[in-house]
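Researcher: Let's run the pair from yesterday's discussion. Sequence first, then tokens, for each.
Model: Starting with the first of the pair.
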Amino acid sequence: MFRVLTNASVKMVQRYLPDAFLFAVILTFIVFLGGIFINGKSPMEMIGFWGGGFWSLLGFTMQMVLILITGHTLASTDICKKGLRSLASLAKSPGQAIILVTLVSCVANWINWGFGLVISALLARELANQVAKVDYRLLVASAYSGFVVWHGGLAGSVPLTIATENHSMQDIIGIIPTSETMFSAMNLTIVIAIMIVLPMVNRLMMPAEKDRIVFKGEGAAVEETAAGAEAMDANSPAAKMENSKLLSILVSLMGIVYLVSYFAEKGFALNLDVVIMAFLFLGILLHGTPRKFLDAMNDAVKTTSGIVVQFPFYAGIIGMITASGLAATMSQWFISISTPTTFPLFTFWSAGLLNIFIPSGGGQWAVQAPIMLPVASELGVSHAKVAMAIAWGDAWTNLIQPFWALPVLALAGLGARDIMGYCLMLLLVTGTIISLGFLIF
């Protein structure tokens, strides 16, 4: 029965879900019309909100491009290829491959979502090369599925924000330590339950052998470099510098020394910039020469077009839905039907809905926290619990939001339609687990 439901979900998504870029365009029109007909804004006001927000994610877009490029480049080094092959060799069957990549994805994303997205996608590709007859679409969906735990993990932006002095909501909720949020019994129970259930569900969704789509390989000429395109005298000063191991060692040591001093001062405080820096300088060091590193970078850049084109459209959507008041209207509707018992649950559901239009943890917190937390005070509901409801809602519907899947899809060479049918089933399963967590605790 579960396989029948999964097959129906996959077929529905394949038939009706447009390309990820068109998905962003359609969301743009939905929010545009919602602002006009629900919040009474004029078309020109909505266009102004859209244009005003269109470039607001440029810094984040560059971070995502860099983590994709540097992660891809690091993975193409000989030592990382051997490491991924060794890890992938633990799986001897398609079912074991699905379980392995799901577990690695969950753990890696719990540690840091940027690290988790890249590592799990690269492991999925290696497993596809090694394990015969594994469905590549489900393998990549499983690699992405662990992303759902990120906001309950060590890099969760909401729990870290409210544990920091001078955060924006301190006057209302004070400083809330991580012992009451990411390390609370409720949050740890949800995370552990998902890490147990998710591998089993992904394994159950494995299609019959006749219906599987297997990885065709990366094709010839992937490793071709620009060296042959422009002949250079190997004995020229330029060629000697490009093939100098000393230069690579010296510049990478500068980066590594900085990272060591950073961790010595701040502990294991991973953030996106630190992950990118680690990927970058390890890549330079392990490739051996600047020429090999640059050739690997040139190959990796080809995977970033979807991020570069689509992220500004999501920034425009965020601009419209926040400036028009539409996000506040949606949150207020959930508040109107809440009781002290159901308020955390409805906060989670509303955050999940808003995340489809505001796929940014920080952006969603800025919109919902000023609305939800004062109501929590009035109802006598734990601020920590409501904050985690917003955090989990932000993470939950990422399963069906192509915004965050783009790096994984780019590394895997697939489109959103290929994995979203499976992710829709995972949305229902994980949504049930998280909802029960907020009701029980």
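Model: Moving on to the second of the pair.
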Amino acid sequence: MATGWAGDGAVQDQIDATVKDAIKRARSQLPTGPGLERCEECDASIPEARRKAMPGVRLCVPCQEAHDREDGPSAGYNRRGSKDSQLR
């Protein structure tokens, strides 16, 4: 379904591009390299299962949860802009 000047697959292409960008951004934030045996914040032991599941892990679960709460939700990108800005 074409809308205005957009091609037939433009909407799906935009959705695909947004998903690919989000995946790339999430992967870039993953830790890399060898994980630590002890948490770098509280010095608690990091279980081997966590180190295997999360290569490059640097924090124990409680410290990671606290860190995630501090960061808050990540804002996505709205490539199309808001409808309000298009109507002005």
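Researcher: Give me one sentence on the second I can quote.
Model: Residues 10-28 form the longest helix (19 residues).
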